[in-house]
Amino acid sequence: MSRGLLDAGIKVLGGVDNAADCRFTYERNIRGAKFIKHDICSLSAESLGNRLDIKPDDPNLIFAGCSPCQFWSKIRTDKSKSERTAFLLKQFQKFIRHFRPGFVVIENVPGLYRRKSESILPGFFNFLKKNGYVWDDAVINANHYGVPQNRMRYLLVATRLKEDISLPPSNKQSAKTVQDFIGAANGFKPIDAGHRDDDDLQHWAAELSDNNLRRIRVTPKSGGDRSAWKDDETLQIPAYQGKDEIFRDVYGRMFWDRPAPTITTRFNSLSNGRFGHPDEDRAISIREGAALQTFPDDFRFHGSNLNSLAKQIGNAVPPELAKRIGEHLIMIANNG
Question: Considering 22, 41, 66, 69, which one is annotated as catalytic?
């Protein structure tokens, strides 16, 4: 979100995150902004104001909240670990209440909106209304905002400066695909599974087991899936035996001429979705995942291992989407 707003021409003052792995990535790419490693549940509005040198009632101030969203996602995982972060939107309210920024942006998974009866969203709407904000919100596909993924997200923009506000305009006709961002034509040299070098591009791929390497080698190019080896007893996975119609994307290859699936925190793993390269016998690389998230080539990721880098990339708001949000807010602010 910070990179996209920066690219839109907005001065980014800082970002708050409880993940230590993000610090170097943030500080070295979002120049001039402060990284505040803190749990917002225990961060006071006064402390945030002192650290970022911001004051209440500044009409040019933008607060963007992109909290962890695993609790509201469709992925079938144990939700107990994510319950504590399920209601961070309420914690976000204390900063809005204290500072009354000119604009507020919320980006999250669609489940936050579609499960409104369970989530804190209705209460957040009431809070915005009581504090003089108007808003527009919807579940959008990032693919209609220049991102080469079918990435469904909940988006809200709000302001206290106008009588109404709208989301950034979408454009389905200009939808991007995988071949628009990765492949030889986009500067990606062919590499093997497990490739790692000293190149700053970070075109690095995870290793594959012998069996997974055999599986992807017999998976058809550009869109092939695990049905190609379902009858091979040495390759078939017991959990999927006789279940050819479910989880078809697992172990699959991306299509060149279609948008990528949602880039998740495990996009570098062949077994975690349709993350196989369209042609090459491997999962997509760290830089390919970043490119499909619309990070520019000069954005460097820092972390302890490939999984740390993939997690940062998959959790991020695509910068191109954030840029279009920022440009839209600038347009609204200037049309006064």
Answer: 69
